[in-house]
Amino acid sequence: MNAKIQTTAPDQREAIRMLDMLDAGGEFTFQTFADADKNKNLVHIYHGSLEAHFDTLARLNGQGAGVFVTVNQTDLQGRTSDNVTRVRALWVDFDTVDHARLDRLMNMDGIPPNLIVESSAGKHHAYWIVAENGEIPLNQFTELQKRLIHHFADDGADKAIHDLPRVMRLTGFYHRKGEAFMARVVHSDEWRDADELIRWVQSLPMPEAAKPKAQAEKPQARQTQQTQQTHSTLDFKQAKLLARGRWPEIFNQLGYTLSTTAPHEHVACPMCGGSDRFRFDNENGDGSFICSQGTGEPIAGDGFTLLEHGGKSAAEALQAVTHALSAMGLVSEFDSKDTAHQWGEPQLLHIANQYVEGEYPIHAFPDVIAKAIKKSAYFHNVPLAVAAQTYLGEQAYIAQRHIKAPSDKSEKGQPCSLFMLTIFPSGEGKDVCKNDASKISGEIESENMNRFYADYKSWSKKKSDERGDAPVNPMSRFKKTTTQAIIRMMAGGAGNSYIWATGEGGYLFSGYSLKSDTVGESISVLNDLVDTGKGNALLRNEEDSHFFENKYFSLDIAVQDVVARPALTNSLLREQGFLARVLFSAPTPLQHREVTLEQQSIKPYDDEDLKAYWRFCEKMLTTPYFGNKLFVGDDGRVVITKCQDAERLHIQYQNHIGQEAGKGGKYEFIRAYALRTNQYVLRVAAILAYCSEVDYIDARIMQNAIDLCKYSLDEWLRYYGKMEKSDSELMLEWLKKQNSSKILKSAISTTVYPKHLRSKNNRDAALNHLIDAEHIHIEQIGKKEYVVLNPLFSKVG
Q1: Euclidean distance between CA atoms 324 and 578, whole angstroms
Q2: Helix, strand or coil for residue 344?
Q3: What's the total number of domains in the chain?
Q4: 24, containing H or E segment
Q5: Which of 38, 257, 307, 772 fits as disulfide partner to 317, beta carbons 3.0 to 4.6 Å?
């Protein structure tokens, strides 16, 4: 029976206040449900703008329907997880009445919500809405929601609000459960930065998985029917085939009383405790069901899915069904034999702290650059390495727009792009050295961007039929960014040379790119950009796909040790070769130098050596030296070649690296890093040749490039030698303490210590490193995976 029509009309302007925060001028997926009864005539979904559907939504609201909006962006085709295309916000639904909550939320520690809605008297919805250009990965949403909800658990936060297509009450419409109340915006603020929001939420504790109520209440006598038959030859397909037509008896064996319900009949759910939203129809004998959990969000599936709804993992559901089938006489036990595995000798996971800090090879640079490096280091009281690293990164940015390095693998050469990484404390001079090194390119960038903004402003004021093509963004230097933002800028940008240069390396190592669940994807993108200068990425959808080539990309990152250390010990980053591409330095800070009046009067911008360097950079940026143009590639860049003497030195270097990266060699522990320098030394040599204004790489330049690469490798050894235990070492120690030759892989995620290894990315990265190092292998028994320890590992110290 329909609710009596209300005379009080909804407020469209109030609805717009909420929707404009979510997506100003955007289109949405709206949902209506009966608020006070079960009138299915009030259940509707509409896609589009509020203006297009307001009258319909207002009419339904007057008839007793609650009006909701899908918070996340959809494809406007449906309201399932598959239809969600973008995360607009994170949010918390507070179920308890508390009129003081608003003040607490607005003044909370961390990042306060930027939209707060009063959904009924004293109850609130708090939203953290990200800026339009922000990115929260779809596959990261649920975990972030759970952390955020757990953070407010003591304040009545609804624990179930963590699915992508979740709808929430739309302001401006009446909440008709009990006395009618118009949902309204009570606080709004500026949009939140997605990266900062992700970092903050990820710093919050993750709730431990709760045992479902129904599982706790299952009859104990039934549970004892799972006997010693702990292994089965049944895989999922076999179990599903045997279970067909037997699901009521299987559930009875497991302690659940289920019988098929009449069409449209709903009963209590035996799994989640829902009292009237469950139907077991057992269609086709597959144990099919539907349960809406009392929230309007249905869960449906077969008998295995129903067991998972009760709190079991997929593997545990398979095991439970196998036990039941065995008790029914349909499965016989078998003797599970260890799968034969040919073990190799375990490799070292750590190196001894036996390396001392070496002298930076400042002699490798042309005189005009070397003098500037020394002056920057002196003026800012930093080690030569800190200044030299950023100067080399700047020269890579300048050179890569004009030249290519030679390659032993292609006559077309390779990009001369570099990845510079410097570990150094904050506030000790990193940024001012970068300012010295990039002064000219930074000024040119500023001029180009100011001209672009002026042109764009003028273009946007023209009538649409008079505009023509929009001005192209010339930005080529990034400080705070993400891999996705870089891809978009490089694809649509005007330049062919780009650099991510920052003295605040937390933008990379603590940002979304290297901490999120998409870390592997981010690594792959950055690797491709540095290695090839090509980008081919599908970001949000087909319309957000990008392809480009011949646009070269370098990184020059300086970062504090405490920020970088988690990434530098991350097995995934090491195994995927991301760190192997780095020219690395971690120098010891200098002692404080007493400040004198004479020193205070000396200004870097008045120094002749720095002025000479800036004039040199201006020349190379505006009238570059191309020499005799011995070979010009397809993209117009000159391919720098190497003479015979340089070739001989390069061959000697490759043989040296091959020996030292082998078993027992100096670089055994950083084998991937050492082998990578065989080709990267050519990149360094090409840059040194270009800024020396010579046509080719001679023996002197090749030796200088070799010296720079050896310095980097020695710095890696020194850094890792004094480092605490890596994730793979910590994982191996924990595995050994379990006093078992086989450990259930899934159990690691809940019991391993330190706790940071419980995340899937960290766990799998550490395990993969141990597999490659011959300490473990993974053995599959049925649907379960077990970690098996190498019986020879004790031979390695």
Answers
A1: 48
A2: coil
A3: 4
A4: none
A5: 307
Q: Which residues contact 75 (CB under 8 A, 6 or more apart)?
A: 83, 85, 541
Residue 237, amino acid: K
Please name the amino acid found at residue 403.
Answer: I
Is 659 inside a domain boundary?
Answer: no
CA torsion angle for 380, 381, 386, 392 (degrees, to 10)?
Answer: 50
- CA dihedral in degrees (118, 120, 126, 132; nearest 10)? -70
Residues 535 and 608 occupy one common structural domain:
yes
- Tokens 């607490």, residue located: 104
**For residue 320, what pLDDT is reported?**
85
Nearest C-alpha neighbor of 199 from the set 572, 514, 565: 514
Whether the Cβ atoms of residue 128 and residue 90 lie closer than 8 Å to each other: yes
Q: Closest by alpha carbon to 421, among 543, 281, 561, 619?
A: 561
In whole angstroms, what is the distance from residue 601 CA to residue 572 CA?
Answer: 49
In a domain, 504, yes or no: yes
Backbone angle region of 123, left / alpha / beta, with phi > 0 → left and psi within -120 to 50 → alpha? beta
Secondary structure of residue 642 in the 3-state scheme:
strand
With 80 as the cut, is the pLDDT of residue 27 above it? Answer: yes
150 and 281 share one domain: no
pLDDT digits (tens, 9 = 90+) for 576-606: 566 788 999 999 888 877 777 777 777 778 8
Within a domain: residue 638?
Answer: no
Please tell me the predicted confidence (pLDDT) of residue 351.
60
At residue 293, the pLDDT reads 63
What is the domain range of residue 788? 727-795
pLDDT in tens, 705-744: 999 999 999 999 888 876 667 788 888 888 888 877 788 8
